[in-house]
Amino acid sequence: GAGVSQSPSNKVTEKGKDVELRCDPISGHTALYWYRQRLGQGLEFLIYFQGNSAPDKSGLPSDRFSAERTGESVSTLTIQRTQQEDSAVYLCASSLGWGSDQPQHFGDGTRLSIL
Amino acid sequence: AQKVTQVQTEISVVEKEDVTLDCVYETRDTTYYLFWYKQPPSGELVFLIRRNSFDEQNEISGRYSWNFQKSTSSFNFTITASQVVDSAVYFCALSLLSGGYNKLIFGAGTRLAVHP
Fold this sequence. Notes:
The complex is a heterodimer. By secondary structure, chain A is mainly β.
């Protein structure tokens, strides 16, 4: 079966523009996660979805960041009024459930560059 | 505090050498899981192994082996007879059930370069 799919693969945009990143999780995976990875650094947790609700938004860096999920399917991460410090790879992961034994399966990421 | 520290930032070896990537974690939870992920140049994180806090048996999978020692809070990863295809960034991660969900705390990663 298909893995986690993210689009676009790359996005270059001007500072101040809004961007929308998409994640299609593995079919049947109820849990979905967004992470940010700055160049040469580890993964920074952004937000988690359990079904279509987001019990933990604590990782969102500012109110310019928002995310939503439709059912147990597609999720979109929106960044409004982008800043240069938003440049990073945004990774999406999904897992079958939300137990701590569940490995998260990652997509290839969206590389976002803000000019 | 919950934290994962990957001791080496970068390691460079010549093909066929053995290499160990060290991971030290901190948590007060008694039940947790530890993971290793590989991130090749293509960017996708690939799940390698999961170990729960109650199972200290070492594990071997081909050229890969993992040594989990609860007494020292370490979960080290050894690649035997390294190959160029092993070149990647490797992440150690700690998984806790926090607030009802799987919270994955990553280390900063170790970049491994295997030269021919």
